[in-house]
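Format notes (please read before filing issues)

Several people have asked whether sequences and structure tokens are stored in separate files. They are not. Every record keeps both together, in the order shown below: the sequence lines, then the token lines. Line labels are part of the format and must not be stripped during preprocessing.
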Amino acid sequence: MEGDGRRRLSRGMLPILGLHVVNEYYRLERKPPVTAGLLLANTLIYLRPGFLNNYLPTLNQVWFNPNLIVKNRDLKRFFLSAFYHMNDSHLVYNMLSLLWKGIQLETSMGSIEFATMIAELVAMSQGITLLLAKSLLLFDYDRAYYYEHAVGFSGVLFAMKVVLNYRSNDYTYVHGLIVPARHAAWAELILIQLFVPGVSFLGHLGGILAGLLYLRLRRSYTGADPVTTVVGNIVGLLSWPLKFVRDLFRYRRRRISGRGTIGGRQTGRNVPDTWRCTACTFDNSGLLSVCEMCGTEREGDGLSSIQPSNRPRDLSLEELRRRRLERFGR
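Then the structure lines:
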């Protein structure tokens, strides 16, 4: 999050972001859709193309300001401020971080659970930041965090970093320092506060606490996250008509091949379009004169496919195996 109200017009860093996104998604076998959607949403909100410009609130209308949120009960500021950015570097830095963390988390968790987690982290990080600002005001703290303005996705990114590293025993680099991965978010919080002016300390701290709260709530119940279950059921319900229409109009080409299994059990009904091979008992289409499985020629009028045959099997297993290999090796 940044509290600086200025915005640069230059967009020279955006091609770098686009190049990184394309490169990462190109090499992935499974493309995480929720991460891509978040990247696109944040970028479009920042660029404000013509078809969206008239519908998106302005930056001044969505600043995260605890005083205005509480005073006006402004949910727009509460939620949308996380998706607005001040300038190119603010957007690109956050989106590159989102790209790296999102790919790992969504790939391991699944898209529905990941999307649910992001929604929960947005609400929790913003809510905790608001509570912290209000608490410091009650304690007469000198710096008026309660009246500060901030925007950006970095609070959620801090929460994602906590979730991503909470079980890690490895070490990682944080701005040139080697620290335990589990404490990387705390180290970054301190370093950014020391060396980057104008950042929202409470916003980042609220993100870390939101990540810890999410993990605590996740461990408090067994099985699937109830919110994830509800979201999954809604997605399944909405996608059911599409699946139904797809299955209804799916074109299935008729196969001229066997209709059953080797040694398959018959129901006793007359099935004129199949015949059973006397050598390997595979049920073949009535349009075939040679067994598709072993290559044995069809005998008689085909009634052997529906009548038990007492003929001895004069082909050995080795001969059957040889015929099958010849049949399918052509």
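For reference, the curators noted about this record: The longest strand covers residues 171-174. The chain is about 55% helix and 5% strand.
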